[in-house]
Design goal:
Helix content: under 10%
Number of strands: 11
Strand content: over 45%
Structural class: mainly beta
Length: 121
């Protein structure tokens, strides 16, 4: 059972940056592909970015390409989401997930509790 804990969310002005972190409890973290999803009020959970277990493969939703970067440090059991040039439409609860590199939430077995990101205009 993998436990995931997100941190790093907060309130930021448009154009600003935040770095989200997701710490995993499992020593076999390095064998899991990881992803970030987000959910805005009244909307479904949306894929944001994913990274393979080795970090060699990454994918992003079109709306964040060039602004967000997913990375991982397997020695620290942590995955990151660096978010630059934030826009009000990036406002959402951000979740990390483990077990796949797909874009569909149901493909992922493990989820964190989420961290709120609010971007003011």
């Amino acid at each position: 059972q993998v436990q995931l804990v997100e941190s790093g969310g907060g309130l930021v002005q448009a154009g600003g940056s935040l770095r989200l972190s997701c710490a995993a409890s499992e020593r076999t973290f390095g064998s899991y592909a990881m992803a970030w999803f987000r959910q805005a009020p009244g909307k479904g959970r949306e894929f944001v970015a994913a990274i393979t277990w080795s970090g060699s493969g990454r994918s992003y939703v079109d709306s964040v390409k060039g602004r967000f970067t997913i990375s991982r440090d397997n020695a620290k059991n942590t995955v990151y989401l660096q978010m630059n040039s934030l826009k009000p439409e990036d406002t959402a609860i951000y979740y990390c997930a483990a077990g796949s590199t797909g874009t569909v939430a149901s493909e992922y077995a493990y989820w964190g509790q989420g961290t709120q990101v609010t971007v003011s205009s």
